[in-house]
Amino acid sequence: MAITTGIVGAAGFAGIELVRLVLRHPDLELSIVTSNELAGTAVASEYPGFVGATDLAFASHDDPALDTCELVFLAVPHTAALGMAPRLVAGGSTVIDLSADFRLKDPVVYEQWYAARHTAVELLEKATFGLPELFPDDLVRAAAAHKMGEGTLVACAGCYPTATSLAAAPAVRAGWVVPGGVVVADAVSGVTGAGKKASARTHFCFADENLEAYGVATHRHTPEIEQILELDGRLVFTPHLAPLNRGLLSTVNVPLASDAPLDAASIIEHYRAFYGDSAFVHVLGVGEMPKTSAVAGTNNAHIGLAVNERARMLIAVCAIDNLGKGAAGQAVQCANAVLRLPESAGFDRAAVPV
Amino acid sequence: MAITTGIVGAAGFAGIELVRLVLRHPDLELSIVTSNELAGTAVASEYPGFVGATDLAFASHDDPALDTCELVFLAVPHTAALGMAPRLVAGGSTVIDLSADFRLKDPVVYEQWYAARHTAVELLEKATFGLPELFPDDLVRAAAAHKMGEGTLVACAGCYPTATSLAAAPAVRAGWVVPGGVVVADAVSGVTGAGKKASARTHFCFADENLEAYGVATHRHTPEIEQILELDGRLVFTPHLAPLNRGLLSTVNVPLASDAPLDAASIIEHYRAFYGDSAFVHVLGVGEMPKTSAVAGTNNAHIGLAVNERARMLIAVCAIDNLGKGAAGQAVQCANAVLRLPESAGFDRAAVPV
Amino acid sequence: MAITTGIVGAAGFAGIELVRLVLRHPDLELSIVTSNELAGTAVASEYPGFVGATDLAFASHDDPALDTCELVFLAVPHTAALGMAPRLVAGGSTVIDLSADFRLKDPVVYEQWYAARHTAVELLEKATFGLPELFPDDLVRAAAAHKMGEGTLVACAGCYPTATSLAAAPAVRAGWVVPGGVVVADAVSGVTGAGKKASARTHFCFADENLEAYGVATHRHTPEIEQILELDGRLVFTPHLAPLNRGLLSTVNVPLASDAPLDAASIIEHYRAFYGDSAFVHVLGVGEMPKTSAVAGTNNAHIGLAVNERARMLIAVCAIDNLGKGAAGQAVQCANAVLRLPESAGFDRAAVPV
Amino acid sequence: MAITTGIVGAAGFAGIELVRLVLRHPDLELSIVTSNELAGTAVASEYPGFVGATDLAFASHDDPALDTCELVFLAVPHTAALGMAPRLVAGGSTVIDLSADFRLKDPVVYEQWYAARHTAVELLEKATFGLPELFPDDLVRAAAAHKMGEGTLVACAGCYPTATSLAAAPAVRAGWVVPGGVVVADAVSGVTGAGKKASARTHFCFADENLEAYGVATHRHTPEIEQILELDGRLVFTPHLAPLNRGLLSTVNVPLASDAPLDAASIIEHYRAFYGDSAFVHVLGVGEMPKTSAVAGTNNAHIGLAVNERARMLIAVCAIDNLGKGAAGQAVQCANAVLRLPESAGFDRAAVPV
């Protein structure tokens, strides 16, 4: 029987991609989508790609139908989930949170970087971090709790942390980083990463034909990546914006210890073993580098690996769709895990080729 | 049981979109994909969007496995299908031809516009024209022939003819065109319409940030549109190129006779009745105009309608994905019709929303 | 001695392009640029392309320095110029108005299309229409008035009217249009044409990879084109949006009378004679069609011509930069004419090649 | 009197931008432009942005008119300049070489990275490296030699080396790099950087909506950057491709020594002092980061600076136009220096604003 599903904040870019994924998911039934700003508007009116595909209209966030959903996705700005999640979890729902509110384990760090008090520390302690390939056991525990009838919350990893960590983790966890070494991640995102709000940054005429760095040394995904990779204070992360819709490429420079391998072939073999069980993460061969266009619209991550031997540096490059594996796709993947559905349920395996 | 399927010319843009559609089609099994240029290359190596999705490699066009396919798509340049189709049809296959070789009913017209002799006139006479919403009976006949075990050939309509004719046909067939009146269609296509061949026209740096008309007064889709709409010598068709990948918008100006309706609401009602049975064609409401982004990656067509009352002109605008409803999608739709599969089998109903 | 110059509404897209053109103009000295919204902000802070090029900051619209300017450009929304222009003209300034307020000769037509009362009818009657290639004598008269010390107002033609009229005028004025015939203009613009205001329409993620028509049968440039070409009620004009910054292409379909020429070569010869004196309008050869990229950043217009003989239709295609010849460039060209400066003063002749 | 100028390889992207810059240069007169492939074709026919701006046609490389030029730009692939430059210099010309043939001081390094023998070692020893802000004295010496009537050769720095070195040099030369520290430069280029040749890489449909790294750990600009910054084996350089025409952004991560400053304000002050005399390099303020759109079409470089204090890393970001300061602009700047013309002669100071 289909699982009743709600999406809060469904009019934003991550939210609307969730709408698409849930609608095509064989085991989920989309009951309610909310947007306070667009309450009453048909989804297909705001996003005409849904003409003929759904008659749903946006409801407001406080619509009581949400409480009857077995599965709820929260695609809301940070601090908003703090107010919504505890009640939903207490009511027994499986809550998949795409906001930043439950990602950082330490509420002090949250308060430093997000300039807001964490008002749901109790739930934070029980929250599951949603990056399935790197923390599979956490999702197994959440699935067990769900099976016992408990409400659960999964805090999905952010887009930059996902790509950057997938690129670096197999090397970092193997102990290949030189002691005290700093990992440098330069990442580039398409403009959907800047959100739906119309602004100078997202104006076509300012984004088109332009490249820029932003949030340099201050981006809020920094502590999240440090937490995932256990690199306290040893990560330099610089995000950039480029003129495309979807796609995120993270180029991660990992300084290699003296006993780490230096040949790409061995490193690729190690990465492939590390991701052996994954349906979504694909490690490319020697001399191959990922393209974001090859993962757009999917939940896939492609990783390319090369070594600068003279500088003893591993260059690990990961491409994802920032709205797919970086947001809505990962959220559905986490839901599949908690609900014990097939990992690939609801996903296309191939990207649109061109 | 799955229908064994082959795609000839699978490395081109229409061909590779067919690969994607056939792989996800519940009733088709992709047995062979061919490309003389790339024979031996893995599909996922040339198009990395297929990494993890298929292990198929391109075979050459003369691979004998083709002859065992129940269903064969020909995504080849014009004149190439002339040589391949007769043998496949004679062998009992259902051939869905995306080339221009069997679209024009009159071989003399073909020879005028394509500067090539038509060497398969016998098959041309039996060929079915593939534009299901406008010529449904032809596909019913082809399905009946297929059921009798006969080979069949469907010549799918081209991208510009599809969008232009879907926009104009309900008005034209209602007899609304002023006697002797000329229909003006100005259409704009994304660059995938120019094909995979690297050239000055398809070079990023020449196509980016540029708009241009091409093939003015000489484009080969002109006689095809005239044939569909029965507008002998009374069509002016001008195609344009714009900097995007997928998408085709045709703005069709239909001069209205004195007894034709002039209010958009009535015209929309007529169009909706005309397309009432279609899963793919959607007629928008008063004041709404289609966006190509809302149909990208799908087999959908969106139509918007407005009237310039002073000039008594209907402006009918149709948006399709030139590789979807304009090529590979329409081909699969035609295959579904001939094989008596559900019309929507293999298709997503919603486009990627952003 | 340099002519003191002010730009009102300098922070918009047409305004800021004027800033660039005036700064590089050998005979003009930019004294003041205004923007109520950005008053106090440095130009180079809002538009970093001016870092190192000017230290000017935006002033407010009511800054008294404006009144001391010999030359004032108004790059303001319609109705705003109605309030500003009369005082400036009365003060003896040469006012070059880029708004729509003084373009339509008949205030009744203005009030119909712009839903606003025309409050400066006296000035409207004396205003000069600014489309130098088609109305050169008007500018000669304005120059004479200026020489006599009188204030003058030039109402520059809009972007779509400029491209469309340059394409059609030589044929229309030659009497080649079939009696009662309707001219169909389908035009495509880059997103700078939609202005600086951040909105769903100008959001990168909605404009990118999309084509659409807008303002169908209702666009306010329609009566202006009809006025220029004297085609009362016999023009169908449909604007479209495509994903590029600068560029406007108008494809104009002119139905030819029985005594009009049908061969492209003769028509091109006529057009070249018509534009013989122009520094900016270039008529391309047989088989050549214009590209907007070839005129971006310039004041040039390129025109290509072809004939559909069977339908007796001339297809005249004109490419301009909507911010150049379609706005700021034309404004400077008009200023040059009134001030008796060389026609090309301040302009580059070549576009950036790629 | 105007200086007679020739451009060899004028049909490529750097070459044609040189054509534009030389045509507008007040002191240079463009006598000859060559392209073996397009010999006989009018410049304005291949690049329609020059319609009305020049009547020149491409000549072949061996046209004797080249030998009479006082100034010759070589915009040819590597190894081609090896054969042309010695003769031209011997004839007394000032040769500005945009190829890689005379950039690397050590011919052994050249032969390693370019897989070709260096056949003009004598000239290499006398060649001037063309990156005026970092090596001004070399150009002073070249100017002195020119004044004595000697032929000279300037080997202009490449696009990535220019942006990367301008970002890093003030810190590196101040001794701020931690001993043994590795500098990590991740740079992104527009597609003009990939050249005019039509290929899969430059095909619109593969470049559009895509991000990728390329030449990872193998790009030929690596030894050039190491040479400029004297970072033997301590540079990791990864170039990326993004979907825009012009623009190059290099994000350079410089690990700071214990006695280096950590506050951005002090570092900016140091950089501004370092570049105090430059007309083209602009160091942005605290919290500001450069945009490539703000330098497109110019010879400007914008630099933004930030510090990650916990990781003791300086993040220096430089934006240039890869065809401007990264190629043709720098070449003209070098020519100006050798010929003792004003540094800014021929350049616009402002970029097109939007």
Automatic annotation (TrEMBL), chains A, B, C, D:
Gene Ontology biological-process entries: L-arginine biosynthetic process
Enzyme Commission code: 1.2.1.38
Enzyme category, top tier: oxidoreductase
SUPFAM superfamilies in the cross-refs: Glyceraldehyde-3-phosphate dehydrogenase-like, C-terminal domain, NAD(P)-binding Rossmann-fold domains
CDD domains: AGPR_1_C (cd23934), AGPR_1_N (cd17895)
Domain Semialdehyde dehydrogenase NAD-binding: 4-142
SMART domains named in the record: Semialdhyde_dh (SM00859)
Localization annotation: Cytoplasm
HAMAP family for this protein: ArgC_type1
Protein family according to the UniProt entry: Belongs to the NAGSA dehydrogenase family. Type 1 subfamily.
Chain's role: Catalyzes the NADPH-dependent reduction of N-acetyl-5-glutamyl phosphate to yield N-acetyl-L-glutamate 5-semialdehyde.
Name of the molecule in the record: N-acetyl-gamma-glutamyl-phosphate reductase
Species assigned in the record: Enteroscipio rubneri
Upper taxonomic lineage: Bacteria, Bacillati, Actinomycetota, Coriobacteriia, Eggerthellales
